[in-house]
Amino acid sequence: MGRRKMEIKRIENKSSRQVTFCKRRNGLMEKARQLSVLCGSSVAVLIVSSTGKVYSSSSGDSMAKILKHYEVRHADELKTLDLKEKTQNYLSLKESLETVQCKLEEQNVDNISVESLTSLEEQFKTALSLTRARKKELMMELVKTLQEKEKLLRDENTVLASQLAKMGKENELLETEEERAMLLENNNNPPETLPLLK
């Protein structure tokens, strides 16, 4: 007798849901381990439960190494996602500024209440502090990126300097060997002398 096919939908019973979560989590982690062993690949599994508890498993390489590899491979995609977040944040700030501007441009500017002005002031302060915080964050990211580039350039400079020094030593050895060869050649062929007068 075969197993019946289970419909995939949220389990309403809390205890059944927890049991299913534990069994399937363990099964998923076991399958990931098997994939790593069978194919010789690095596998990382990261699961966050509905209560916020984090479960992780890695095989092949450490979780940190796998995540670093993923970050390097998908840096462009992550930057694009980060840019989308920044754009959405910018749009929300822009919308709030437009709302404030609309309120200020109303015809009854003289009749605006103190509470309304206080609310507008708070919105301005919030928008300003968010903008400053975002600007500071972007500047820090830029500084960090430039520092990383500087380190890479210094490392490359060190490698190039060592290669140049090595090439200089090789050239000196070649010059020394050429001089030795010339000396040996001169020793084998005695210098010509003037014939003696008879």
Into which percent range does the helicity of residues fall?
over 70%
Count, helices? 4
| DSSP, total strands | 2
Main sheet characteristics: 2 strands, antiparallel
Order of helices and strands: HEEHHH
- Order the strands across the largest sheet as they lie in space: 1-2
Strand content: 5-15%
Structure description:
The protein is mainly alpha-helical. 72% of the residues lie in helices and 6% in strands. The chain has a two-stranded antiparallel sheet with strand order 1-2. Strand 1 (43-48) and strand 2 (54-59) form a beta hairpin. Helix 3 runs antiparallel to helix 4. The mean pLDDT is 78.
Which descriptors apply to this entry?
single chain; about 200 residues; mainly alpha; two-stranded antiparallel ribbon; flat
Topology:
Blueprint: H1 14-39, E1 43-48, E2 54-59, H2 63-73, H3 75-104, H4 114-188
Antiparallel strand pairs: 1-2
Helix pairs in contact: 3-4
Write a brief caption for the model.
This protein is mainly alpha-helical. It contains 4 helices and 2 strands; from the N terminus they run αββααα.
